[in-house]
Give the backbone structure.
Amino acid sequence: MTFLHEYVDHGLEVDLTRKPADFDREEIERLQDSAAIIIIALSLPRRLGPDAMNEDLSTDKKRCRRVLHVLKQSLEAWSKDGAKVDWRKPTDEDQVRGAALNWAEWYEATKIHLENRRAYIATYGIKTNSDWAKKAVTRLTNELSWLAYAMR
């Protein structure tokens, strides 16, 4: 459990009645939502507009593919026994969000969410003496690291 102490926030109130399956389901939904937006962004040929340079368009598509790969790896890690999971069908809202995706804003919001989630789960794990929490914190830490690399 000492691994978790690095991320614990002792002032954080956590709901000790929650079960690991609740967290797993929420993370799968989050990953599915992000993937739907990025799938839309990837599908739009000149998403950045008619004035975008070829280099900018190329970087955008490369980033879409890299981040989508990270999301797929993370999704499989959160899925039961690493089972393959298909992406959900994008909604109309996903269409709008994918077309307007700003990578800097998306990455910053995702990074903050993952860091906060990691602190919450680490705190939950220490307070409940949960072995599951170490795996969950490792998954979130891996995703943070992989996303940082994918966003280069």
